[in-house]
Structure formats: structure tokens, C-alpha cells
Task: structure prediction
Amino acid sequence: MIPLAIPNLSGNEARYLQECVESTFVSSVGPFVDRFEQMVAEASGAKFAVATSAGTTGLHAALAAVGVGRDDLVMLPAFTFIASANAIAQCGAEPWLFDCTAESWTINVPQLQQALETKTHRNQAGDLIHTPTGKRIAAILPVYTLGMPADMQPIVTLAKHYRLPIVADAAAALGATYHTTPIAQLGADLTVFSFNGNKTVTAGGGGAVVGQDEALVKRVRHLTTTARVGADYDHDVVGFNYRMTNLQAAVGCAQMEQLEGFVARKRAIATRYTQELASLPGCSPFPTPDWCDSACWFSGVIWPTETKEIREALRAEGVDARPFWKPMHLQKPYRDCPREGMDVTDSLWQHVLTLPCSTALTDTEQSNVIQAVKDYAAQEKAA
Ligand SMILES: *Cc1c(COP(=O)(O)O)cnc(C)c1O
Result:
């Protein structure tokens, strides 16, 4: 089976892990954690970074740090991985769900703007209130789908106007740029990455929260380390145990050394699928919005029909093809959340076919994947 997306551990991973064991620094303090934070900050163009145990825990800590709390609403595109919504729920808040655009698979900015204009008001305390539910709106959480930054310029303008913080779910977007601007400099207060096993760069598991405001990033660090003040079991708020371990960071550092090559390979794989498959009858390419240079975490094609049959046919040929995110308004925990129209999300999600795109995928393997898809299309046309 040609796998969908597996880690590529061809660098210094084993050597750095060995160093951890020999030095006994295996837990959440250690030189690799510090180095990993520096590497992530540098690669994303951020001034400050905090490594976390996962992308999800990083999102939770980031949302808590910008003040999201019980009974708040956070504006979120419905087309995302459930971790973004879960992080909101873990704050005791609820997502307010938005559509994405066909051109970018990221949040629909005109819809966001219209909802802010027509469905919100300020209460006497100066909070922005969602008029239909009476809930306070606490933040915007754009998602950088597949490693494509959302259209951040207008989002940042809206956020400033309505005085809302932005936490960006950039889980798979390390290496991407927006109009040549590095990913951490797009105006989000905090930007969150994931280093889960299926991401382009992995730490086995892990995350990172980056930002430009030292006090805010310090607050994230404080929250992720049980909110300890001083050495003597003294804690000032309800904190979390969300730190990355030195073992994870050892793998993460070895992977970060290869970031550039990995992203280049991901882009080449995506381009080739688009060139060879997007012109099949009824198919279309994954989007490439002109405002960004995507990190191309996953690649594939938009298939004309629901993808269950082709996925089964490809699996029988030894090709691991998968569907992509099932949107939040169709997930049991979030189906009653406030939401706007979902035209694009509803018509899109069942047509997304992701194809093998590991960085170590060979050209021959990709040729085999492409041939299997073409064969299926030809056979379907004949039937
Ligand atoms: C992978 C991913 C996450 C979750 O990251 P974990 O490290 O697995 O917790 C969150 N959001 C998006 C968009 C992701 O792709």
C-alpha cells in the first residue's frame, strides 16, 4: 500500500533521541525544547514561540491566553479539523460557524464581515455581543486549510475594527507565506502549529504557539506549565500541563532541519497531481489562492462525485486515498452551534479526494497513483 502521509525520519532524529536518553533529559525541560522553540520562531518569522504537547493543546492555551472563556463565542470556519472546535469547547465557549470560499477553502471573509455588521452589537460593558444568542464574541479563529493562509489582510482589518483577538490555526502551514510575508506575521495575535505524525514536520506529536507580543506569549507559556509562580508549588490561575517533552523536541529539531526540503517536495507533489488529474472530466484542482504560497500539506483532486467508490477502488490497487474533513456543523457535538450559510462547505467536502503525499513518495509511486486514478476514471466513463 502506498500510504497517504507518513513521517520521513531520514535526518538526525535517532541521533538526537539518543542524546536525550544519554543526558537523561527526556521530560519537559531540556536543550532540544529550547532549540525547537527557536527554530519554529525563526521558520515562521515570529519573535517568540512556546512548544506544546500537541496542536490541540496549543490552540486551547492560545484561546485561553487571549481571554476566551465560559459561554463565549469564537468565529470559526466549519470546514476544519475538529481539534479547532474542540479547543474552543475546552475553554467553555462555543464556535460560531462560517462557510469557506471555493477559491481558498478558508473562511469566507465577506460572510464574516456581513455577520459582524448585521448580527452583533455592543453591550454597556463594551463587549461585542452576538445578537441572536446574547453571547459575547471573544475571538476569530481562522484556519489555514491544507497549509494555505486565510486572506488575513481583510480579516485583520475586521478584527481591529471590532476589537477581536485572532488566534490562527496554522496547524499544517509551517513554510507557507502570504504575499511573501512569513506565516507568523499576518496579524494574528497568536499562531498555532501542529507537529502530529501526519503533518509535514513532526515531533511524534506536539505543537507550538508563536506570536510577536512577548507578554502574550509569556502568558501562553505560563498556562502550559501549570501556571506556576516561583519554585514552591505556588500557582496563580487554573493552568494546564501542556508542555512538549525534550524527546518530542529532539525529533522536532531533526525535522525542522529538513523543513525547506519537505515543503518543496510537498509542493512538487501537489503540482504534479494538479497537472495530471485536474483535467479529468468533472475534476478540479485543490485551490491555489493568489494571496499565498501554500505549504501544500495534503494534495489530491476534487472528484466529480462522492469519493467512497473511487477510494475503495484505489485501495484495492494499493493506493491509500482518503476523504478530507467532515465539517463542524455536521458533527454531533457542534451541530446546534450558531452558524451562517454553508453553500460551499456543503457542496465541497464529500468531493475532496486526498492522495499519497508523503515527502518520501517516489516519482514512480506517484506515477502509479496517477495511473490508478486515470484507470478508474476511464473505466467509469466506459461503464
Ligand atoms: C492537525 C490539526 C490540528 C490538531 O493538531 P494535533 O497536534 O493533532 O493536536 C488542529 N487543526 C488543524 C487544522 C489540523 O490540521
